[in-house]
Amino acid sequence: MQFFAELLGPAWLPVWTLVKIVAIVLPVLVVVAYLTYAERKIIGWMQIRMGPNRVGFFGFRLWGLGQPIADAVKLMTKEIIIPSGSSKGLFLLAPVLAIAPAMAAWAVIPFTDTLVLANIDASLLYIMAITSMGVYGVVLAGWASNSKYAFLGGLRSAAQIVSYEIAMGFALVGVLMSAQSLNLVEIVEAQRGGFWQWYWLPLFPMFLVYLISGVAELNRAPFDVAEGESEIVAGFHVDYSGMAFAVFFLAEYANMILVSALTSLMFLGGWLSPVPFLPDGFFWMAAKMSFVLLLFLWFRATFPRYRYDQIMRLGWKVFIPVTLVWLVLMGAAMQTPLGSLFH
Amino acid sequence: MEFTTVVFYFFAAILLAAGVRVITARNPVHAALALVLAFFTAAGLWMLLEAEFLAITLVLVYVGAVMVLFLFVVMMLDINIERMRQGFWDYLPIAGLVAGLMVVEMVMVLGGERFGLVAPEPKPADYSNTRELGLLLYTEYVYPFEIAAVILLVAIVAAIALTLRRRPGVKWMDPARQVKVTHEGRIRMVNLKPQKPESKTE
Amino acid sequence: MQATNFPMPDLLPALPEIVVLVMACVVLLVEVYSKSRAAGYVLTLLTLLAAAGVTTFTAGPDTAYTFSGMFVDDAMADLLKLMTYLAGIAAVIYSRQYLADRDMFRGEYFALLLFAVLGMMVMISASHFLTLYLGLELLSLALYAMVALQRDSATAVEAAMKYFVLGALASGLLLYGMSMLYGLTGTLELAKMAEALNAGVKSELVLAFGLVFLVAGLGFKLGAAPFHMWVPDVYHGAPTAVTLFIGSAPKLAAFAFAIRLLVDGLQPAHGDWQQMLAVMAVLSLAIGNLAAIMQTNIKRMLAYSTISHMGFLLLGVLTGTFAGYSSALFYVVTYVIMSLGAFGMVLHLSRAGFEAENLDDYRGLNARHPWLAGVMGILMLSMAGLPPFVGFYAKLTILQALVGSGWLWLAVLAVLFSLIGAYYYLRVVKLMYFDTPHAEAMAPAPAGDARLLLSINGLAVLVLGILPQPLMALCAYAMQASLQ
Hints:
The complex is a heterotrimer of chains A (343), B (202) and C (484). Chain A has 343 residues and is mainly alpha-helical. Helices cover 64% and strands 0% of the residues of chain A. Chain A has helices at 2-8, 12-46, 67-77, 88-104, 123-131, 135-144, 148-179, 184-189, 204-217, 229-232, 242-267, 282-302, 308-334. Chain A is globular. With 202 residues, chain B is mostly helical. Helices cover 69% and strands 0% of the residues of chain B. Chain B contains ten helices and no strands. Chain B is elongated. Chain C is mostly helical. Chain C has one domain. Helices cover 75% and strands 1% of the residues of chain C. Chain C has helices at residues 15-33, 38-58, 75-101, 107-124, 129-147, 154-185, 190-198, 204-222, 230-237, 240-247, 249-265, 270-293, 298-318, 322-349, 365-368, 370-384, 390-404, 408-434, 448-466, 469-483; strands at residues 64-66, 71-73. In chain C, strands 1-2 form a two-stranded antiparallel ribbon. Chain C is globular and about 70 Å long. Chain C starts with 14 loop residues before the first helix and ends with a helix.
């Protein structure tokens, strides 16, 4: 490494940063591919069917492990159909706007206490700001398609995401009150001390609200009215095909992984080991993220879709009051000796 | 030229272009999107000024929430651009005069040398903008902070008081009531005695 | 964790504000859970009374600062706040029947009214640009919503829209001016700004431009010409109950705003703003009095009369002397009393489905309701500035202060325009006493409480006119204690 640094001189820093970015983005994309596979397999098992099991490598079936690759190749080679009467520039810009925040947010996610691309001071705020921009992709896709179904899907998604962002933000305020920091590394370090010290326990209502709002933010079942196949066909991306559609798909799954990473960092102790006799490490982080992802898949296999007015009621009339009350309780308790419960 | 200066001019150029686009775009959705871009680059400029908290909050609040709702409304409005532009040329001379006056005035008035400003000293590396702002807001500025909170509360109350009403002459349905419908509410079982058809008279 | 050694601010001077804020939230909540519509009404009255009690209890000649010098509690603040509560109580009682008839008798109305009162209190007690501005916004936002509260009335919504757009423009002007002065002096605190200005500024040009923007914004909020365009439309379009409120208490707050801004903060630049105020005052007197003559709608007529009264008020402020300030304080207090009565009468004579807002509706009022006609007559004559009513003394003290500080030509102009203005007030009296009524009978709403209050209001104008000394002395005392 020293050798390369001397070779490239001042250009070394940008190059090295690019290498690191690629080292994060590529695994994320691979995980996305196999998350789709896992989703189909797991939901298949839950519903007592096989899931994909044909496409393998080199003539072996291998339980269908080649399926995501085959899907990717198919989507990449399909034509991107641009509907007549659509706003062409925005139509093509929308998928980019969807995936850019999903990728940019990974810049500040720590995988262990040292393995992080940019350990900035207010990384939690940064993540909230960046992820809040993901909605533009959906809204614009809905509008630019010049189709009623897509438009309805875009509007639903905008209202839903903006509503649940508030509850999600309040849940995060609880976390930062406990950790007294906006830095993700420090938030994880504040949870040191084993399974019972992680924030899921003292902030249990916040944990639930965050997890469920996370599902709603992702437009995942049972909150997937933005897609709502049964009523508005496929919602905002009904007119997308080929790679443009695949980018939306990528963005959704990258966001899923992001939310699972955030949940593990903020409520499940990140890379910390649950018991004192085992070492900390990236392994724990990966295990926790897998668990949260499994929950997302499980939700999808289990719950029927919410009705739109029920979603709004849940967000505004249940989650926001719950988080507000809990914040007040926490703030009050922190002024008393009971406050140690929350640290 | 330093690297930050290059970045500054880069952001500033985009900001100006986006600002011009906001008022010249024919399509209101495009104008709203240009405004989003303007906010985003403004956040970049603030970041250069080492006001990270403000920059991130600008993105979080304006780009992430306010403009989404704005776009939401603009998309649903059926704005007739041509009608909006009627009278554009009639008003242009007056508007141009006012704008010209404003520009002249700003050139005359604004400028660091008139205010006697000095650049603040650079902060140490571990200086946390967010924490310092929080400390000030909740101590010295707690009173205006609370009033601002009351203003927001009034805005909520006003918005709800003005919009939560039954519009006259609008047909609507309550999905919850639709779902709760049972057959008892819809079908009335009537016990009819069997009857002979009346004899037809031809 | 960084330790902060910040002392807890002294909350006692701000106790009335705290009471009003808490109770406004209670009114909102009670509205949700209470079946009775009257709960909000009763609670609002109780709140204003309680606030009045607290303010009276803590009133005194001493000036107390709290919240890091952003809040000031002095004698002028106490007097103006007490008058604000009084105006609020009168507005609530006058409008009860009117609101009930029009399905506006709701918790939101009262909560918004309390928030508006809170905004005025913040303005009255501000000693910092931030609090001045935030109080103003709190007041304005509540008022915009109150104007639009009658959603199915197109004129009300239009009035709210105009009010909102022009108000936002005025706020922008104010902020722009404030930012220039901040750049110039490096402080937002009024007392420190006066010090910095006394010490000399780097650029007189920036000061002048900043002042122009500030004074323009102030003119918008006061409703003084040439920034008066919104006044007639808003007064006319808003539901009369809201017009009554807008036309009374906010004038007190606007006066406080002017005194805090121009006298507490910018006294060193007195020579600059004096001329701007003089121009605004003359224009207001001219436009207000001349345009009022042509009106056939009493709400519009009273709106133009407000503009002319604001011109008179500015005359008092621009003298830059202590006598001028205290006479302006006396003027605004008495104006609020008269305006409450006049709009209260319009409200009282309205009933469900009928607004007594055309001048023709007052034809022959004497034949039908001699007592109400008498009260209205007193109010109109007092507004015209005829002795022995209080409006006469209010105008007289201002003129004295003007002449005393050498503005003879302004005083002459003011008398001239007052004489012109007397015409349209006297026309109302003539309509009531010498014209035959319309065929359509006008029965006032059966609101005994409002009638009693109206009588008290009218008599107060008369009694204060005969014995103006105590109130005048109080105003002078309050000004002296605050401005030392």
